[in-house]
Design a protein that fits this description.
It is a single chain. The protein is an alpha/beta fold. It folds into two domains: 1-26 and 108-201, 3-Layer(aba) Sandwich (Rossmann fold), CATH 3.40.50.300; 32-92. The protein is built from nine helices and five strands; from the N terminus they run βαβααααββαααβα. The protein has helices spanning 13-24, 31-41, 43-53, 66-73, 77-104, 136-147, 151-159, 164-170, 181-199; strands at residues 2-6, 27-30, 110-113, 128-133, 173-176. A five-stranded parallel β-sheet has the order 2-3-1-4-5, sandwiched between helices. α1 (13-24) packs across α9 (181-199), α2 packs across α5 (77-104) and α3 (43-53) packs antiparallel against α5. The longest helix is centred in the middle third of the chain and has 28 residues, at 77-104.
């Protein structure tokens, strides 16, 4: 069973994905890490990004300056599209390869932590899709604390993401993360039991 966990920035999807993976002893794939790997190792992707955003996004050591790239990309929807069109095809190939790899290793449940699951039109890769959501107030508070982003940066990032209500409408399971960590852990336990029940009816 391949389980996708998604949600917008500040919703707590990564924390929920880790809780779930620990509870069901499943393997977790972090798609952000795969995207970073593509940026560092795929010369074709790096060249596309340089053509779109300029040579200043590449450091003297030859690696992509992700902070600078993000600052440039998130200034407009068109620039976000340029970024996505360069990175996502290679990222999705890596994701498919990782899923196949862990299936062959015998992992019965694979958890995929993927913010852009719907945006990248990757739904067909998953047996179950979980959307983690939260209020704007709580999301902004988390991003101020954990990412040290300004309110202007937070609003800019949020404006470039797919609407949460659209994601919720497409989900198999919805997790509302507006309470304590203990409550999130309880929801992870309930979800783990549900997934195990689907796996072994």
């Amino acid at each position: 069973m391949v389980v996708g966990v998604t949600g917008n920035t500040g919703c707590g999807k990564s924390r929920f994905a880790r809780l779930l993976a620990d509870l069901i002893k499943g393997h977790i794939i972090d798609v952000d890490s795969l995207a970073h790997e593509v940026l560092e190792k795929d010369g074709t992707v790096r060249n596309k990004l340089q053509r779109s955003f300029g040579t200043s996004i590449v450091t003297a050591a030859g690696s992509v300056d992700r902070s600078r790239l993000a600052a440039m990309a998130f200034t407009s929807r068109d620039r976000v599209e340029l970024l996505n069109s360069a990175v996502w095809p290679a990222m999705l190939k890596r994701l498919e390869s990782e899923i196949d790899r862990w299936k062959k290793e015998g992992k019965e449940i694979i958890i995929v932590d993927m913010a852009v699951l719907f945006e990248a039109k990757s739904e067909a890769l998953f047996d179950v899709i979980i959307v983690v959501t939260s209020s704007i107030r709580n999301r902004m508070q988390r991003l101020r604390i954990y990412r040290d982003w300004s309110d202007a940066e937070i609003k800019q990032r949020m404006a470039r993401q797919m609407d949460l209500d659209e994601k919720i409408a497409l989900a198999d399971i919805v997790i509302y993360n507006d309470e304590s960590m203990d409550e999130l852990e309880k929801k992870a336990q309930t979800t783990a039991l549900e997934l195990l029940g689907r796996k072994n009816p």
